[in-house]
Amino acid sequence: MKTTKIIAALLGLILLTSAAFAGGTQEPLPSAAPEISIGLLPDVDSIPFVIADLKGYFEDEGISVTLQQFKNPVDRDTAFQAGETDAVISDLLSAALSINGGLKVRAVSQTNGSYKLLTAPGSPADTIVALKGMRLGISKNTIIEYATDKMLRTAGLTDADIRKEIIPQIPLRLEMLQSGKIDGATLAEPLATISVTAGCSVLISTDKLGINPGIVLIGQDFMAENRDAVTAMYRAYNRAVEYLAERDREDYIDGIIEAMGFPPAARDVMELPAYTKAQAPPAEEAAEVVSWLYGRGLIEKEFSYKELVDSSCLP
Q1: Structure pTM?
Q2: Which of the residues in the chain have pLDDT under 50?
Q3: Nearest-CA neighbor of 163 among 181, 142, 179, 178?
Q4: CA 170 from centre of chain
Q5: Where does CATH 3.40.190.10 sit in the chain?
Q6: Domain 115-209 fold
Q7: What secondary structure letter does DSSP report for 43?
Q8: Element (H, E) at 118
């Protein structure tokens, strides 16, 4: 079985710390079906794609998929804009910013992820309010800052109440949090839970707030020219979601840890979300993201849902 490659660019740094569908087997695409390159970050949103790769679901669908890992959103987005990837596991903020910049891209499906606001080991801050005046590590104008703002607002805190430390490199933000060089930080899973094992504490998470702006972002031209292949990719994704729901954790956790380059500590503590099959991003979430970006002057207008999302290729 042909195995697609995962470029584990984050591996060294992070060490810091088959059933068919109910409707029957799908007919494979022609051998000339294109290769789809997908850019990933080290978070749980990407895991269904990793499972689909490890289990051979992409090959079953007659497509070739390459998974590329990036250590921060800037590198991921740069590669996507340069045409080095055809799709990326991203978020509605990146979608809106890209479209505002003139790129022909659309959010296609929602992903399942989690972000947590944590304090450093030994921090006296045991509530969100207690963070007032403290230094929080974020990546600016990204889903991390958006999620952080939403979580801080639950306690009535504003930008004037905290000191945002701009640390886009995920491994560096992780190390600075664990070493107490910053007072707190927002991290995605599984790094958030790994930080807890190193003495950090969780104050709040996006799960509790119902925030989930993670998406798959695909170029419009690529999607138009390769619609059948994209649909096949999502059939494989949905099979992976079914696999994760039906199988015991021990059946797949080691493969995920190795493929994603997660540190060994993630094996027993990583919290996986309840994955859902590919579906369009919620309109309410998209509207909130657009409002946040527009309010900060980061986009020129408030995009409509149709200007951001195109889920017509989903199975």
Answers
A1: 0.84
A2: 1-30
A3: 181
A4: 13
A5: 6-113+213-275, 115-209
A6: D-Maltodextrin-Binding Protein; domain 2 (3.40.190)
A7: S
A8: strand 115-119
- Tokens describing residue 121: 């080991």
Tell me the C-alpha distance between 78 and 147, whole Å.
22
Secondary structure of residue 286 in the 3-state scheme: helix
DSSP classification of residue 121:
T
Tokens of 59: 């090959």
Output the six-digit token pair for 274. Answer: 């309840």
By the 10 Å C-beta count (0-12 exposed, 13-18 middle, 19+ buried), 300 is classed as: exposed
Pairwise CA distance, residues 218 & 104, whole Å: 9
- pLDDT tens digits for 169-181? 888 999 999 999 9
Q: Write out pLDDT tens, residues 243-259.
A: 999 999 999 999 999 99
Q: Tell me 26's DSSP state.
A: P
Fold of 6-113+213-275: D-Maltodextrin-Binding Protein; domain 2 (3.40.190)
